[in-house]
């Protein structure tokens, strides 16, 4: 349901992983060309999976436990993506012949992780509220 705060967070994470990689380059090559995620199949696959998990999590709003698990899987997936970016940036440090400067696109998974953590926190709070109401019956 769109009125729940976790749906807003999940939708923001969905838009972040869907739109931001197209707008922000991962790095800029030596000949001043932007390197986007589409030039590497692994990055395309991981961003696509993250976007898909966010969308599935939004749609499964009636099953809060599944939503929570999908959020955690999505966080792990974004951590893997962030790890690949860090690994790549450490291997290509400074002024190498291929990369002249790192782009802001490498921080897209960080924003997605923050939004997913906030969504999972709201899902947990909602689940605890439902359990406390069930105890009163």
Radius of gyration: 18 Å
β-strand number: 3
By oligomeric state, this entry counts as: single chain
Helix content: 55-70%
Strand order of the largest sheet: 2-1-3
Shape: elongated
Helix-and-strand structural type: mainly alpha
The profile of the biggest β sheet is: 3 strands, antiparallel
Number of domain modules: 1
Question: If helices are DSSP runs of H or I spanning 4 or more residues, what is the number of helices?
Answer: 4
For the residues shown, what is the average pLDDT?
85
Q: Strand-residue fraction?
A: 5-15%
Termini gap: 25 Å
Which stretches are low in confidence, meaning pLDDT under 50 for 5 or more residues running? none
Order of helices and strands: HEEHHEH
Describe the overall structure.
- By secondary structure, the chain is mainly alpha-helical.
- The chain has one domain (5-130).
- It has 4 helices and 3 strands, in the order H-E-E-H-H-E-H.
- A 3-stranded antiparallel sheet has the order 2-1-3, with no helix packed on it.
- Helix 1 (5-23) runs antiparallel to helix 4.
- The longest helix has 29 residues, at 108-136.
